[in-house]
């Protein structure tokens, strides 16, 4: 890493530079990995955005942290917490495991409290990125006529290509859950879910209304594609989606949503541009029919059993799934099902 151009980390609107350090790794009682990077960032620099209160006994700061992340601040047998307290000369009070609340830091010196708060926030940010995603923003494609055409596609592929390596019924998407993935999120408590729902509404008011003209977006789902180099060893096949008016309004909405959610800290930026993909066949379903692919890369190659898609691509390259109107963005819950068979929505906005 170039020391003159260090990695920048955005935490609650504050920007920190990350310095190159050697991390120490431990195993806690639950065999979960955590690391504590000593002096990993410029933690003692003043940070006016932290809410530091002066008290009769010194200074105090409270940080809102999801309870699932408490264990990374505590560490094995409390080692991480003790070390933070010793190095910053502060006292750190953490709620009981499973109880949502604030971590409270107190100390004699304001700079000590700032240092402890910043180190905890950086520790939380580091392990937040390692949490599996819980929600994703999506455009639903599960209209009845689209599902019907998808089932016809599945039937024909199995009829004509089942002799090809790796192709069987287990790798096809559930038709009730056909969708375009916009971006994934790890929302670790109800407060973060509410924050995501609120931001989705803000996005509607600030730019989605102008892009859509408060009308649905007519699109066509037609053709399939793959993303790796060898069609004989494919992990995923996607249906292609085009706007009927030739515009890219759905792409612009997706890109701007991801930009806003990344800026808020609720989403991690993975790509320069959203690759809108409607999964129709995926080898991840072979092991877990309820799995949700995170994106174009999905699982590592060695964790998948690929299939030979050459004949599928040759016979169904221009397969037409149908037309529909995109009229909503959903904050969908991973591993969930609502009464329609689609993912349960924690919140959604409509265009019209």
Automatic annotation (TrEMBL):
- Does the record carry Methyltransferase as a key word? no
Q: Which residues form the K Homology domain?
A: 57-125
Q: What does the record list as GO biological process?
A: DNA alkylation repair; regulation of DNA-templated transcription
Q: What GO cellular component entries does it have?
A: nucleus
For this protein, the record's CDD domains field holds: KH-I_ASCC1
The keyword RNA-binding is annotated on this UniProt entry: yes
A Pfam entry, by short name: AKAP7_NLS
UniProt KW keywords: RNA-binding
GO MF, one annotated term: RNA binding
Q: What is the designated name of this protein? A: Activating signal cointegrator 1 complex subunit 1
**Originating species:** Erpetoichthys calabaricus (Rope fish)
């Amino acid at each position: 890493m170039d020391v003159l151009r260090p990695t920048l980390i955005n935490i609650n609107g504050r920007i920190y530079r990350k310095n190159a350090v050697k991390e120490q790794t431990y195993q806690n009682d639950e065999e979960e990995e955590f690391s504590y990077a000593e002096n990993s960032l410029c933690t003692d620099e003043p940070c006016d955005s932290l809410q530091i209160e002066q008290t009769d006994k010194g200074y105090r700061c409270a940080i809102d942290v999801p309870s699932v992340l408490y264990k990374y601040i505590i560490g094995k047998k409390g080692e991480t917490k003790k070390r933070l307290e010793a190095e910053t000369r502060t006292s750190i009070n953490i709620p009981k495991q499973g109880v949502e609340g604030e971590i409270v830091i107190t100390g004699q010196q304001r700079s000590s409290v700032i240092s402890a708060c910043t180190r905890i926030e950086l520790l939380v940010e580091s392990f937040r990125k390692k949490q599996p995603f819980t929600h994703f923003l999506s455009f639903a494609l599960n209209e009845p006529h689209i599902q019907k055409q998808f089932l016809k596609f599945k039937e024909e592929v199995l009829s004509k290509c089942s002799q090809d390596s790796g192709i069987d019924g287990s790798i096809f998407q559930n038709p009730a859950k056909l969708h375009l993935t916009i971006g994934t999120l790890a929302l670790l408590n109800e407060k973060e879910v509410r924050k995501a729902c609120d931001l989705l509404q803000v996005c509607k008011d600030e730019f989605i209304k102008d892009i859509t003209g408060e009308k649905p977006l007519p699109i066509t789902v037609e053709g399939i594609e793959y993303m790796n180099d060898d069609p004989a060893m494919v992990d995923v096949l996607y249906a292609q989606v085009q706007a009927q008016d030739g515009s890219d309004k759905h792409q612009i909405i997706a890109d701007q949503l991801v930009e806003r959610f990344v800026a808020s800290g609720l989403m991690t930026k993975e790509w320069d541009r959203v690759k809108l993909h409607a999964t129709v066949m995926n080898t991840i379903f072979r092991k877990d029919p309820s799995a949700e692919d995170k994106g174009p890369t999905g699982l590592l190659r060695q964790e998948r059993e690929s299939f030979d898609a050459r004949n599928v691509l040759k016979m169904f390259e221009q397969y037409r799934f149908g037309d529909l109107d995109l009229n909503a963005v959903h904050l969908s819950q991973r591993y969930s099902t609502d009464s329609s068979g689609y993912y349960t929505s924690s919140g959604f906005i409509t265009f019209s």
